[in-house]
Each structure stands twice: as structure tokens, then as C-alpha cells.
User: Fold this.
Amino acid sequence: MKRSTGLRPLLLLAALVSLLLAPQPPVADAAPQSGRPQKARLIRAEPPPPRPEALAMNAWTVGLAGGLLEGAPIRLAAEMARVVDDGDNLHVLPVVTRGPVENLNSLLYLRGIDAAIINSDALEEYKSQVPDIQRRITYVLNLFPSELHIFVRPEIQSLSDLAGKKVNFNSQGTAAAYSGPLIFSRLGIEVQKTFIPHQIALEQMRKGEMAAVVFITSKPVDAFVKGRFESGFKFLPVPYDSKFEDYYLPAALDAADYPNLIKPGDRVTTIAVPTALVAFNWPANSNRFERVARFVDHLFSRIDKLQGAGFDPKWKSINLGATVPGLARFPAAQTWLEGQSSTARASR
Assistant:
């Protein structure tokens, strides 16, 4: 018994030493003195350094805001990406967005976006929010014009006849939904604006429930080429004047575009909204500037491939030297064009 009693203090001492030497939980994970439950504090490990292949891939990647999945801009963005691809030397990443009107917002504020396809009059919305918007954005290329089509019922004879009438501007997010009301505001005409798919609106027009539909897209439009309309349905002319000089271009619709709606020899004057490839005005010699400069060089040097078979026909009408109202050209694009002009003069 005495032997057993003598060992007891030694065993207790050994147990105490074991407890003192055992690893203790972090202070943050211990139960708080107040008795109220608290979340344990997580200790984050430092991320591993980027691997060389990741650095190489990101060094020359250009984010390009395209547009809605069903629209022409995202298709053009995908075709550009295919033609300029140069492995680790250049990788253009087209991004599906809410549309070319929203793309300006993406270019200004969304991480990883270096360039975007926009409607030129989208700049109007930012004048009050970003007063220096026209210094922060530059254009690379005037891609194609989107002509204004104001298609009306037989009883409508002029733009003023639409005052107070129901006019459809297509679904929200489209060019017509943004630019259409802006153009009508400049014309000084107040209408009952609706924003439903044009297929539905055209049926309502046939029934007399809708006075007009407004399309803003590249001609010819399938709905007017393939559609059949009663006599008197027509396009209204829109004169180009000083109200539109800041963002728009003069345009026309004729019988070659819509033989079922316009008589041979007739011409309907209208305006067009330039759809442009633009870039953020990165500081010269910065990495982001150099990325866009390389993109410009590859795109301009390979434009003939885009104008060949297998690509959107719009590329065939693109002029590299065409300007975009309201914006300055991206410096690398201007340099490329001047270099080509010098080469052409030297070869004469």
C-alpha cells in the first residue's frame, strides 16, 4: 500500500508535465471569456508564386468586351480573336456582356477588359458621370455602321405623326433600346416607348396596335427583306444635320437593300450609329498599352484574312482609316497607319 501511495504523486506530476508540453490551440480558436460563441479566425497561407507558364499566358492576354451572345459584335470579337491569336505572344479573350451599350461600362470599370465594341453614342451617357470620358477612351477601328430604320404603318406620313403614338425600340440591352430613344429626344418627338422583341411588335403593327418599330442595325435586315407587308408600310426619312454631327454618320436605305419596300431609284435618307472597336487610353509604355498595341498590329496586319471566305461579310466593307466621331484614335493604330502610308509613298 505504501508503495502504491508513493507512486501517486509521480504519476500526477507526469500527467501535468504532459499537459503543459502538449500543443495548444491558437488563442483565436479558444472559447471566449464572455461565453458568447465567436467565429474562429482563419489564418491564410501566402499564395504560391505564379508559375512561369501562368505569367507568360497573362502577359499578352487582351480582354475584349463583345456583347450579347446572339449579336453581331460578339461574333466579330470571336473572329478577331481567332485571326490575331499568336500563342503566348498574344491571346485575345472575347467576353460575352450585356451588349455594346454596356460595354463602355465594362471598359471603364471591369477588371481585365482592355478593349470593347461599343456604339459611339454610348459616350453621351457618361458625359455627366465621367467628364473626361473622351480622353479616357480611344478608338481602334470603325467596325461597321448600324443604320437607323424607322418602319411605320400606312397612316404615318412623317416623323411628327409619331408624337404620342406607340413605338417599339426592341428588347432592353439592344442598340435600338439605347440609341433609339436618344435619337427621338434629339428630334424633339415624344412617343409611347415600348421595349419588346421586334417580332412581336411587327405583328402588333399589322393589327394596328403599334405605330412604328425602330431598328438600329446593319442593313439589310432580314425582317424587312423576307417579311411581307401591306401596301403603305414604309421607312421614314431622317435628315442628317447638326443635331447628329457629334456621334452619328449620314446614311441611306434604297431598293438594293429592300426591294419589296423601296421602289427602284428611290432613296430614304437616314443616320447611322458607328459600331466601333475602342480601347482604354492606357499610359504609353505601360504593360496594358503594349498589349493593346500588339493586338492592333496583329489585327491591322491580318485584316485581309478577316475579309476572306469564312468570316462575317461586314469585314469586307471595313476601312482601316475610317474615323469615329467624338474620339481620338488609339496611338498605336495611328502609328501603324502612318507607317503604311509612308511605305506606300516610298514604293511609288
